[in-house]
Amino acid sequence: QVQLVESGGGLVQAGGSLRLSCVASGRTFSNYDMGWFRQAPGKEREFVAGITWSYGRTWYLDSVEGRFTISKDNAKNTLYLQMNSLKPEDTAVYYCTAKYRLLGVFSRVSREYDFWGQGTQVTVSS
Fold first, then answer.
1. Which end of the chain has the lower number of beta carbons within 10 A, N or C?
2. Handedness of CA 50, 64, 94, 22 (dihedral sign)
3. Sheet harboring 3-7: ordered strands across?
4. pLDDT value for 81
5. DSSP per-residue codes, 37-102
């Protein structure tokens, strides 16, 4: 059974930084894409960043490119999202997610992801 457990959310002032962590367990993730999505109140869940577990290729939402960095530690089975220069519009619940992919292209569509964490709240005050 796959489990994704996020941590690291909190309240921060605009311009500050947070690092989210996601510990993944339950299987080998070598053929998985891992990602972070977020959902603000009244809005749809949106893709933030993604990475291939085996090769480390990354993708980002345009509005976070250059401010956020997704990374992983294979030995610890942990996914990270370093968030710098945070803005009030980054306020949301952030979810860690995993998608099995043997073939095909990387997806930014939330419904195509197989496993989800419980989410961690990030609040950025102005």
1. N
2. positive
3. 3-7, 18-25, 78-83, 68-73
4. 98
5. EEE-TTS--EEEEEEETTT--EEE-GGGBTTEEEEEEGGGTEEEEEE-S--GGG-EEEEEEEEE-S
Plot region of 74 (φ>0 → left; ψ -120 to 50 → alpha; else → beta): alpha
Mode of pairing for the β-strands spanning 18-25 and 3-7: antiparallel
Span between the terminal Cα atoms of the chain, in Å:
40
Q: Can you tell me the distance from the alpha carbon of 79 to that of 51, in angstroms, rounded to the nearest whole number?
A: 9
Type and span of the H or E element at 2? none
Instruction: Name the token pair of 11.
Output: 């309240």
Mean pLDDT of 84-105: 96
